[in-house]
Design goal:
Elements: H1 7-10, E1 15-26, E2 29-40, E3 44-48, H2 55-63, E4 70-75, E5 78-79, E6 90-94, H3 105-115, H4 120-133, H5 149-161, E7 167-171, H6 179-196, E8 199-204, H7 207-213, E9 216-221, E10 224-229, H8 231-236, H9 241-246, E11 251-259, E12 262-265, E13 268-271, E14 281-287, E15 293-295, E16 304-313, E17 318-324, E18 329-334, E19 343-347, E20 354-357, H10 362-367
Parallel strand pairs: 3-8, 3-9, 6-7, 7-8
Antiparallel strand pairs: 1-2, 1-4, 4-5, 9-10, 11-12, 11-14, 12-13, 14-20, 15-19, 16-17, 16-19, 17-18
Length: about 375
């Protein structure tokens, strides 16, 4: 089974957050099913998946806004399952910034500190420190309405970090921003995490966001963790078809593992680097679009042959489709243009072919079971 924890990545280091056997249902529908997850201090972990996969529910359970039906939540080894949100050493930043429009920026940032009855001198110093961190020096007296969406998001983050949380939860905080602003804020969050030493748990359905910012990515679907690992591991070594299809573009094709390091795809034999699947066993094969090489039709390296059918210019590369002789439409990304109608041969390096077991049932497909 795909591991439902990041503990393996942390070796013997102590986890800050440890979720054990978390199950949660709403109106009879299971949202999380026996979920286990450990998160190391000072890491940036992203919960990634489609709508309804359970990622926001997981975040809310960590934050104390929801209680699990079963399972326990531990913070540095202490059971906090029944501890209310305001008693946990964490803060949450939501997609809707929840700033107070009747307060200026300074009062918005100071809100939590005043509830804790901190001295005013301390609060003033914290406001200046937080505004400097989010690159909004001198904004103390401005109104919320005078700020752009990106600036409001920074104020929401500043309000969270002045409380010096050990853990910062971010629930799709960049979803309402335009593309350029979202990309800028991604770099800001990385910088803040590195400067502050706070653990970040980030929820998104945006694959690029997850790969760009995270130390570790947890891919979720239907209440289960499909795969957990570094961005490079998730992208380059997907453990099942869902992860391969959800993270970036993929060609996922049926194959037969003839023997170790040799797979047959549409009647053509490809060398690969995988072993241990047995002989003559049906498998799923994942090949990324950028890993399909286009060659002249008479090139001896060519394994499959076909005709270019579609092309889209995307700035940094061309996205093309090639219909091979078996009728499969191969998605290909390349910096070289190949006109539709052109006869070509296709080749894939052994190291760029990923082999996966076919799930034996729909339940195994949901869970992400690997033999």
């Amino acid at each position: 089974m795909v591991p439902q924890t990041l503990r393996g990545f942390y070796e013997l280091e102590k986890a800050l957050i440890d979720l054990q056997g978390i199950t949660k249902s709403f109106d009879g529908e299971v949202i999380l099913d026996d979920l286990n997850l450990s998160i190391l201090e000072n890491s940036f972990v992203t919960l990634l998946g489609p709508s309804g996969c359970g990622k926001t529910t997981t975040l809310r359970i960590i934050g104390g806004f929801e209680k699990p039906d079963k399972g326990r939540v531990f913070f540095e080894g202490k059971d906090i399952t029944n501890v209310p949100p305001n008693k946990r050493q964490l803060n949450t930043v939501f997609q809707k910034y929840a700033l107070f429009p009747h307060m200026n920026i300074a009062d918005n940032i100071a809100f939590g500190l005043r509830i804790k009855k901190k001295p005013e001198n301390y609060i003033r110093d914290k406001i200046k420190y937080a505004l400097k961190l989010v690159n909004l020096d001198g904004y103390e007296n401005r109104s919320v309405e005078s700020l752009s969406g990106g600036q409001q998001q920074r104020i929401a983050i500043a309000r969270a970090i002045v409380n010096e949380p050990r853990l910062l939860l971010l629930d799709e905080p960049l979803g309402a921003l335009d593309l350029k602003l979202r990309q800028e804020m991604q770099y800001e969050l990385i910088r803040l995490k590195n400067e502050l030493g706070i653990t970040f748990i980030y929820v998104t359905h945006d694959q690029e966001e997850a790969l760009t910012m995270s130390d570790y990515v947890v891919v979720m679907n239907q209440g289960y963790i499909q795969q957990a690992g570094t961005p490079e591991q998730i992208y380059n070594e997907p453990e099942n078809a869902f992860v391969a299809d959800f993270i970036g573009d993929s060609n996922i094709v049926p194959g037969v593992m003839l023997k170790d390091r040799l797979v047959r795809i549409f009647g053509a034999d490809f060398h690969c680097v995988d072993s241990g699947f047995g002989e003559n066993k049906p498998v799923d094969v994942v090949i990324r679009p950028e890993d399909v090489e286009i060659l002249p039709p008479d090139d001896p390296k060519g394994i499959l042959h076909g005709r270019m059918s579609h092309i889209i210019f995307k700035g940094e590369m061309y996205e093309m489709e090639c219909t091979s002789s078996d009728g499969f439409e191969w998605l290909i990304h390349s910096t070289e243009m190949h006109e539709p109608g052109k006869e070509v041969a296709l080749y894939v390096k052994p190291s760029n072919i990923q082999i996966m077991n076919k799930p034996a049932s729909e339940d195994e497909e949901a869970i992400g079971v690997e033999e």
